[in-house]
# Entry
Amino acid sequence: MSAEVLNGREIREEILKDIEDETARIAQEHGRVPGLVTVLVGNKPASRSYITNKVNTAKRVGFKEVQESLPETISEQELLSLIDRYNKDESIDGILVQLPLPEHIDETKVIYALDPDKDVDGFHPVNIGRLVLGGDQVKFTPCTPAGIQEMIKRAGVPTSGAEVVVVGRSNIVGKPIATLMMQKGEGGNATVTTVHTGTKDLAGHCRRADILIVAAGKPGLVQPEWIKPGACVIDVGVNRVGEKISKKTGKTVAILRGDIDYDAISEIAGFITPVPGGVGPMTITMLMRNTLNSLKYRLGLIRPGQQ
Ligand code: NAD
# Structure
């Protein structure tokens, strides 16, 4: 048996096209486009590449895009003042601060400083609280978990009553995806188990999974013997395991590997996500959706829980 590959790049194109069309329609009817500020502090190559990707995607779908590229030496107070300015700026619907920040800046303080109604990353405690409450409370779902759920839904994999096992308990992936999958409603209503470094029998839990979501950051951690035949296996891991010269650009690029033994598992699973090209492209796509939704809330076009 060979698993159906869930292609994040194809799904991204479909969703971005919808976002682009809706942005154009809202612009025509309401004279307003979603405004996104991206804040980059310092010049770490990985962070710069993530930001460039976000900026280009926002431009492509027709958003107003403001780039704040700040020196590594900026003080915490200066950064907080900048956030305050955009919190009050009526033309801005989303503020994204690229993490990690330099050590002299307290990330928690920065996240708390965001207006929760412009926190399109969904990391502010108010948005985490709204997510846990579920239903009509939810405004912004964190982007990677939202992308994972979207892929599962689009694949037509039944979730209601399914055994879902999540490997990893981070605040940005493990905890929110476990929360999403257990909520009532479409794409949820599953029985969720979260496993982590304190779990005794990792393999035993994974073997029960109808849907296995792996976000451990450990290349090749999940073995083929751990997979229930026909299961849906979502690999969130992005691990740099080496470098190669790109055939397209001639530049040196990272060799990326996920958290599962992809080749062997694709012979057992029913659905599988590749790395790269699986969950990765969905994350930025969901950031765009959150930013569009932020404007739609503001214009009264949708209510929380309807995103
Ligand atoms: P993290 O390091 O914050 O959390 C990893 C979690 O995995 C921890 O909770 C830990 O308990 C668990 N874990 C680690 N090793 C384990 C083991 N041997 N057995 C059981 N549990 C184990 O990482 P994160 O931020 O959640 O990211 C996880 C992976 O997903 C990373 O590779 C990251 O690069 C990737 N990621 C990808 C995207 C994307 O858009 N594709 C987004 C976020 C994170």
User: Anything to note?
Assistant: The longest strand covers residues 35-41. The chain has a mean pLDDT of 97. The pocket of nicotinamide-adenine-dinucleotide is lined by residues 144, 167-170, 172-174, 195-197, 202, 215-218, 221, 236-239, 279-280, 283 (CB under 6 Å). The longest helix spans residues 8-30.
